[in-house]
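Weekly puzzle thread! Below is a chain. First person to post its structure in token form gets bragging rights.
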Amino acid sequence: MFIILMAHTPGNFLTSWIPARWGFSDATEIFVFCSGMASAIAFGRGYDTVGWRLATARVGFRVWQVYWAHVGLFFATLALTVALTDSRLGVRNYWGQLNLWPVFVESELWENPNILLSFMTLRYVPNYFDILPMYMIVLLLMPIIMALAKVNKWLVATFILGVWTLAQRSLLEQLGLSQFYIGFPAEPWSDRPRFFNPFGWQLIFFTGFAFMRGWLPKPPVNKGLILFAAFLVLANIPLSNIGVREFGFDWAKDIRILIKPLIDKSSFGVLRYVHFLALAYLCWVAAGDKGNNLLPRGNTALASVWAKCLAIILKVGQQSLAVFVVSMFTARIMGFVMDIIGRATVTVLLVNLAGAAILVATAYGAGWFKSQPWKVVK
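Winning reply:
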């Protein structure tokens, strides 16, 4: 959540240190993988207890909630960027910065000028607002996955891998099978695909889902596998954006061009998957099973501070939808503030700290409302 906030803040030098700069995978993989794990807890168990029909209804209700979060985020951000652009302090066109020209300038030029209707029906998905529509489609695949799981787990794997394969446009084109490609257009007036193809990204979602459901076993912890995962992570650095751009690995430029379909973000290329699994494995080994290595030890002041930090991190993770929506909105304000007061090192750090505090406050606020403290227990 904190990385997503930093990554969406324009001109934020901290983005030079996020996972996306050092390997093929980035915070999106972390977010979607963890969402799959959380969904296994929140929805997967429902299929065991209340049955397929009621559990699917609960998934549908979650999709309904995500849809309105998506709509609310769009219109709130739209209003904010208009206000910032029209303000006396504004130094740039902030809605143009988000490529929202179709909403304000060009809608009358198209055959279907009702762009708001296209947005509300998810036929127009602007790039900045594309992850929640992807998440909705992936959630809608869950009832299919659970129905197949009742028959055979290998059917689940076949379905997931088959759907992922059909989302690999470049691969299908090379094989002369482009007619089998599945995906959604980002707008009704062109063939531009959505930035996140849900049929590709469901692979990492259901990987997290399968681990949490116990369909996939915990990987073994041994020196050979740790060294192999570390090699994969380190080998990514020269091939990463920062490796090519900052460290002068010119030879890697040609390799990146050659493997472009395998690291494509829109379709979730396979090398992004490999890099994420290697990085996640190393983090899991370091943290210990169920995070045991991260738990505070003893009764020292440092242990007490660390326990409070862990509690904050857990709270932010537990309220991921609310925190995500607020972070996308807050990131635009942070960019505006830095446009006004500058981007000196101290300034940027303070603005990021303030943004992080907003996310923490959001998490605790959302948790408080969900607890419904106004209910009186008789």
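Puzzle host: Confirmed. Bonus trivia for everyone else. The first helix runs from residue 2 to 7.
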